Each structure stands twice: as structure tokens, then as C-alpha cells.
Amino acid sequence: MSTATWPRLRVADWTDTRDTLHMWTQIVGKVRMAYAPPVNHWWHVTLYPDASGLSTSVIPYGDGVFDMAFDFLAHRLRLRTGDGGSAEVVLEPKSVAAFYAETMDALASLGLTPRIHAVPNEVEPAIPFAEDKTHCSYDGASAQLFWRQLLQAQRVLEKFRSEFAGKASPVHFFWGAMDLAYTRFSGRHAPPHPGGAPNCPPSVMQEGYSHELASFGFWPGGGAEGAFYAYAYPEPGGYAERNAAFYDPDLRECLLPYETVAAADDPDETLLTFLRSTYLAAADLADWDRPALEAVRPLAP
Length: 301
What we know:
This protein is of the alpha+beta class. It is built from eight helices and twelve strands. The protein has helices at 15-35, 96-109, 140-161, 202-208, 239-242, 258-262, 267-285, 290-293; strands at 48-49, 53-55, 59-61, 64-71, 76-81, 86-90, 172-174, 179-189, 211-219, 227-233, 247-248, 253-257.
């Protein structure tokens, strides 16, 4: 049984901070994308939960390296270069426009001048970062609680990831939809994705969904305190019926409210049961080669 504490944070209590932080993570993620070599499914643009917040990990530039990290303990965006340079941006109530300007100035002070598409993706309306004075909230306590939610989700997703031997993504944070995600692949190509995400070209979605997959994660929506999700692409016949207890026909995803997990007698097992059962629905109905893909032995149906 899990003895870990699952932080409680009502979405309604931090929506303004969430939406501002979402834009800040997009800015940092786009800086990483400007320098990192492309990797399939856009894995080169993501952020990662770490011991104090969210980090880009090491980014190459020229013959050097740098990184950027949100520190939700000290409430700073920290920038470091491999030659000892450093700069920071204070995380406090300020507009996206101000954060964008300060971040670009901090990068320039370290000799970094990234070219980014300075407009957010996967949101509507998409206000250019330099013009966005609408999103200007930052409650440090809420940001810290969200990070701690991500750590708990990451911990269980990593355990789930260890059960799969096939091609799989890292557990990573996609700043487009502001979700922590992990994806398994069958090894087969998928039909071209039709697109449809706001302010996101179809080509982006087609690269992300180029191969048949089952995806899982957590995001600060879909429930009173956020939600865990699971979906398959392409969705096999019978997937909704097999996951009837969780399936949302509007989103075409399975949802498990975060508060259901946090309040359970065994939160880890409650979440793992959801992840395993939705994976099995995708793998069995789409006829994945489970003996070859699963790490130890196929899970019981």
C-alpha cells in the first residue's frame, strides 16, 4: 500500500495561476525546441519534473550546453550554461509579456538568442507572448502543489513504464496541453492523424501520432482536482465499451479524477489498475503482440 502523500489542489482555486504558468512553460519549451535536435513524436521539446520543479534537461548550443528549470521551491526560473554562466527570472505575479521579455533578456545575458514562434499552441485564443497581459497570476503555493502532484503521477507512471519492453516514451511534460504523458507503441504505423488541436498545424499531430499507440497521463483539468487519462490511437472497436466505467465520449478518452486516486485507501494501486486495464483494452482489441512487448509476462486480461 502506498504511504506517499497525494497533494490536494482544486482546479477552481488556481485556474488563473494555471493558465499563466501554462504560457510560461510554453515559452521555455519553445526555447528548448529551438536548439534541441528533432526526435520522433516531438520528444525533444518536453520538460521533466525534477527535485524542485520542471526542467528542460541539458540543451546543446554550438559546442556548449545550457538548461532552464522552473524552481517551485524558491520560485525562480533558473538558467545555467556549461561554462558556469547563470541567470534567473523571479516567479511572481506578472504578465506573460513581462515574463517573456525577462526570459529573453536572461538568455541574451548568457549569449543565447533563440528564434522561437512566439505564439502559444493548443490554446484558443492564442495571444502572442509579447502582447499577453491577460495572463498575469502566480500563486507560489499552488504552483508548488501542482509540481508535487506531477511528482506523484510521475512516480506511478514510471512503475507502469517498467512493465513494458517495447517502444515507449519517457514520462515527460508536454507544454502544449500542460500534461504529464507516457506513451506505449505497438510497433505498427498508424493512419494519418486528422489534426484538430487549436493553433497547432496538422503536421504536428501527424508526427506525434505516426504510429499506433496507447497513451496515458495527468493534466490539471477533467476533474475537480485534475484527472488521469488514457486513450488509444487509432481507437480500436470496442474500446469505449470495454472501458465503460471511465470513457468520456466527448473527449474520446478514459478519465480517472485525481481526487478519486488521492482519496483511495491505496492511491498507487488505484491508479495502476486504471493504467493497466486501459492499456489491456487497447492492446487486446488492436491485437498487439503482447508477449513480445511486455517486460516480464503478459498481464492477466
